[in-house]
Structure formats: structure tokens, C-alpha cells
Amino acid sequence: MFKVIQRSMGPASLSLLTFKVYASQKKDSPQKTSVKVNELSLYSIPEEGQSKYVEEPRTQLEESISHLRQHCEPYTSWCQEMYSQTEPKMQSLVKWGLDSYEYLQNAPPGFFPRLGVIGFAGIVGLLLARGSKIKKLVYPPGFMGLAASLYYPQQAIVFVQVSGEKLYDWGLRGYIVVEDLWKENFQKPGNVKNSPGNK
User: Fold this and answer.
1) Rounded distance between C-alpha atoms, residue 63 and residue 1, angstroms
2) CA distances from 156 to 70, 118, 153 (A)
């Protein structure tokens, strides 16, 4: 390591400058000797044939935890599967709840009195349906639907059309199922009831 000494002749603004450079060795720096990596205690490299991987024996706690994990694995996988199936439904339900809350916060004028009349109609239907379980299932929703259709006729028409199409579709499917069962059980060619010799 060398010291560099610089001297200039004249001001620094001049374009012609003269420099003298003297190089001398540092006297205070001791000579360094290089050390190999093998000589460091942290990086001692074992000789070949001495190193061998030995697995530590498992403790009783580790064994019991492993057994518990193997025992609980089907249940945890079932829970993860159920969570992945129900997560979209829960998200849509939460979104519907937030939308409903926002709608109720900024409800149109006259919404809450209409809601009160529809709820009162359901209570009247529940009172009139005493004594019969079928009436309790039919009267309150029927009265509430009737009261709601007075306030929201367009939505009621759309609801009746859609529900009528669904009821017709369900009835048609039921008719096809009953017809197939009738053909399988009562109209077989070898059936004794329909054979021509029994007439």
C-alpha cells in the first residue's frame, strides 16, 4: 500500500498545472499472511469416510403427534373440501346481506310502511290458520304474497309467471315418472292380468 502525495504549482483555475507525485510504502501496516479455509476452525472439512448420516430416534411426543396427524387426516381433508364447496355460497350470502343492508339504509320513501302491511298480513294469515298444519303452511305466505302483489304488481306478475313455469315443469316430470312406472309394472307382455286368455 502506497501513499500518494500531490503538489501543484499555481492556482487551480489555470489550464497548465504541474504535478509531482511521490509514492512511498506504508511503514505502519504489518505484513498479512493468507490463511487457508481448511485452517479455520469453523470450516474444518472432515476427512472422507468419517462423516455418516445418523437419524435421531423419534421421541414419544413426536410419535404421538405423528399418530394423531395420521388419524385426523381424513377429517381435515373432508373439512377442507367442505370449506372449498361452501366458500362461494357463503361469499354470495354475505354479499346479498351487505346489499340488503345498503338498500335498507337508503330505502325508497314508503318502503317501511309497505313492509309493515305485508308483515301484518302474514300475522293475520297465521291467526286464521289455527288447528290445521296445512293451513299454517299455506295461509301466512299466501296473505303476505297477496299484500305484496298490491304494492308491487309488476314483480308479482313476473314471480307468478316464473313459478308457474317451474310448477308446470315439475308436474310434467312427475307425470313422465309415473307413466314409466305404470308401463314397467302393469303393462308387461307376459303379465297375467293383461293376457288374452284371462278375459
Assistant:
1) 63
2) 56, 13, 5
DSSP string, the chain: -EEEEEEEES-TTSS--EEEEEEEE-SSSPPP----GGGSSTTPPPPTTT----PPPPPHHHHHHHHHHHHHHHHHHHHHHHHHHHHHHHHHHHHHHHHHHHHHHTPPTTHHHHHHHHHHHHHHHHHHTTT-HHHHHHHHHHHHHHHHHHH-HHHHHHHHHHHHHHHHHHHHHHHHHHHHHHHHHH--TT-STT-GGG-
pLDDT < 50: residue spans in the chain: 1-10, 14, 194-195, 197, 199
Instruction: Report the alpha-carbon distance of residue 155 to residue 163 in Å, rounded.
Output: 12
For 116, phi then psi, to 5°, come to: -65, -40
Alpha carbon of residue 152 to chain centroid? 36
Longest Cα–Cα distance of the chain, Å, equals 143
pTM of the model: 0.42
pLDDT tens-digit map of 16-25: 556 565 655 5
